[in-house]
Write a structure and sequence with these properties.
Blueprint lengths: L4 E4 L5 H8 L5 E4 L5 H7 L5 E4 L7 H6 L5 E4 L9 H6 L3 E3 L6 H16 L3 H9 L6 E2 L6 H7 L2 E2 L3 H7 L2 E4 L13 H6 L4 E5 L8 H10 L2 E6 L19 E3 L8 H16 L2 H6 L14
Parallel strand pairs: 1-2, 1-3, 3-4, 4-5, 6-7, 8-9, 9-10, 10-11
Length: about 290
């Protein structure tokens, strides 16, 4: 059987590349920074492609990938993958929800400390001691799971916005979550609120956030993701006060970038042919087969 060829289209750690290619089970080729047209030209040779946030797997790429069977997203959000077209063509789309969980959580917390300024050390002490009251809005989180996590589940997002002193976002970008925090919802938050986003750009209306920072309604904010990346030079965020910006590096730790390829190798890389021919959904596959 021909060894499956895997394209690494966005930068991951060398350790992760070595893990995917270990024992010669997969032929790995790292080619990053490709335009859509360049990707269309080379994708016919590959059985799988691995991306992070930069490279977009569009319908044109999927249509050109005559051998393509798997799209792997090194992270959680999949807004840069045309999942509908992939599903139509029978291409498995999978993410790696456990690969960067710790690194992104740690970065979110560090940005929260930046956003609160001088009281950061006190916040840290209280958080470690579980002294903070944690509210959560998640339509998919059960009450039982919320109790296990020691969080207070809020039924309506607007109720959470009116109550919280600090708001952090942890959701994929979809049509429903685009501008989840828009001008109207930002106006409903408590004056002096702090906002942190290490999830996906586009969840926050950046113009509205910049205005809220300038007016003082939002006391501070910290963002690791933006609607357009890199952040445009004319973005209203660039001269907004009390704002910390980092360049989408929440998952860019050695541990996170090494963990994701190891996860994929375990779930689909070694038994590549067998698992994609069974017709069953595999672990971390975004599409689910109907029974």
């Amino acid at each position: 059987m021909t060894t499956p060829k895997i394209l690494i289209a966005d930068s991951i750690s060398q350790g992760g590349i070595d893990e995917l290619g270990r024992d010669g089970a997969l032929e790995v080729s790292a080619q990053t920074g490709l335009s859509e047209s360049a990707l269309v030209d080379i994708i016919p040779d590959f059985s799988a492609v691995v991306v992070r946030s930069q490279t977009k797997i569009t319908a044109a790429v999927l249509n050109a990938g005559t051998k393509l069977r798997v799209v792997g997203r090194a992270g959680v959000g999949i807004d840069n993958v045309d999942v509908a077209e992939a599903t139509r063509r029978g291409v498995i789309v999978m993410n790696a929800p456990g690969g960067n969980t710790i690194s992104t959580a740690e970065h979110s917390f560090s940005l929260l400390l930046c956003a609160v300024g001088r009281i950061g050390s006190e916040l840290s002490r209280r958080a470690i001691a579980f002294g903070m009251r944690v509210l959560a809005y998640d339509p998919y989180l059960s009450a039982t799971r919320a109790r296990t996590l020691q969080v207070e589940l809020i039924d309506e997002l607007d109720d959470l916005l009116e109550t919280a002193d600090f708001i952090t976002l942890h959701t994929p970008l979809t049509q429903e979550t685009h501008h989840l925090l828009d001008r109207t919802r930002l106006a409903k938050t408590r004056r002096g609120v702090r906002v942190i986003n290490c999830a996906r750009g586009g969840l926050i209306d950046e113009t509205a956030l910049a205005e809220a920072l300038r007016s003082g309604h939002v006391a501070a904010a910290a963002l690791d993701v933006f609607e357009t990346e890199p952040l445009p030079l004319d973005s209203p965020l660039r001269d907004a006060p009390n704002l910390v910006l980092t360049p989408h590096l929440g998952a860019s730790t050695t541990e996170a970038q090494g963990a994701t390829p190891a996860l994929w190798r375990k779930t689909w890389a070694l038994p590549f042919a067998a698992r994609t021919q069974t017709g069953r959904a595999i672990e971390h596959q975004l599409q689910r087969k109907s029974e």
